[in-house]
Design brief:
Blueprint (H helix, E strand, L loop, with lengths): L5 E5 L6 E5 H10 L13 E3 L4
Antiparallel strand pairs: 1-2, 1-3
The structure holds zinc ion (ZN).
Length: 51
């Protein structure tokens, strides 16, 4: 709780993947993919697995 979790974003349109924070995730959902501009939703994000 309260930890800063990184997420892996994989664009469904251009298939680029980038590591993002939750705040960046929110911005991407608002504004679309930074690379191709496609609208994205929560399904495009997965928790980073850090051992
Ligand atoms: Zn894209």
């Amino acid at each position: 709780m309260g930890t800063c979790e990184n997420l892996q974003f994989v664009c469904p349109a251009c298939t680029r993947s980038i590591e993002v924070t939750e705040s960046v995730r929110d911005a991407l959902v608002e504004s679309g993919c930074v690379i191709c501009g496609t609208d994205v939703d929560d399904g495009a994000f997965a928790l980073e697995k850090t051992a």
